[in-house]
Amino acid sequence: MKKIVIQGGYKLHGSINISGSKNASLPILASTLLIDKKIILENVPIVKDILTMVNLLETLGKKIKIKKNKLEITSKNKKKYFAKYDLVKTMRAGILVIGPLLAKFNSAKVSLPGGCAIGARPVDLHLDFLSKSGYDNKILKGYVVSKKINLKDKICYTFKKISVGATENLIIAASLAKGTTILKNCATEPEIKDLIDFLNKTGCKINYQSNRTIKIIGVPKINETNYTVMFDRIEAGTYLIAAALTEGKIKIKNVDPKIIKTEIKILRKIGAKISLKSNEIRITGKKKIKNLNIKTAPYPGFPTDLQAQIMVLLCKAQKKSEIQENIFENRFMHVAELNRMGAKIYTKGNKAVIGGGTTFLGAELMATDLRAS
Ligand code: EPU
Fold this sequence. Notes:
20 strands; binds uridine-diphosphate-2(N-acetylglucosaminyl) butyric acid; four-stranded mixed β-sheet; about 25% strand; alpha/beta
């Protein structure tokens, strides 16, 4: 089993470039299934989920060369529309290939991803839209088997719940469709804007209208392009929290502070000193950490992907804090691990009450979900 050994008790100092975003790269990579021509993606973080997506795309007919953080994506002659369980089960973003496969081939067979460490994570929202736009979807032996029956020229669809992945999947599915698609109650995460910017650079016609509404005018074909993926806002937030936690002083580079306004506001409230430039952030952590109540919410709210990290910081506050997790039903696996290090946290439903004044002591711990780990 892999392990990481951490010698504690240090303050963070120095400067670091933030990587490209995993969660922007994954849908952009999936969307390349729409495109036969060469695509070059830069600033892609080479983490496990990206390599899994690369494997998945290669089984579907793509040829991908990785050189540091640059991916060159071309198409083989033999294309497939069958996404195997082995690849999709380890990474839920695998379901993102169903949209482009249907748009390109009118048929797809994609494994259902199953549950994961942070919740059941169903895909009903992805499939509901596909049914309403004219695809027949059946669940057969753990796979979603979809095919075109009667595609509609004009679709106006309202998501019954905000979902990042479903918004991305459906934008991709609609990009090559005949006619216009209007999606309402969409997620507005920056990674979705990055996907839209990428697709528009290839010749797609997608734009955000007011109020979580996206309009997609289908185009018959899309072109080759080069694109640089946005920074990873969760990695940026994690470093900022780590500096605040250790009374450190750091500079993070290759970021856009406007995108993480909520996180910056919260860290300032907690007591950190922060200064901003157009593409860098400096932070100095202070000894006194103020308690705060935080609720996770879809963007522009506080991200669920930083919930565990901010919880660690609030363990050090002078008084009790509360966190309400509103996105995933099981994203408190880290609580028991933090308590093993001396934290005083209890949960009730989707709320965690965090006692302040913790002095953490090193312990053997289990790494659960990526962000919490
Ligand atoms: N949901 C449904 N039905 C669906 C889809 C989602 O009920 O068809 C529910 C989910 O179960 C969840 C909520 O809607 O309770 C929101 O899920 P969403 O679809 O927005 O999440 P996702 O697309 O599966 C992405 C990120 C997650 C991040 C969430 C929320 C990627 C690859 N993953 O997941 O990132 O937590 O949005 O912001 O973009 C991570 O990077 O560690 C991570 C988990």
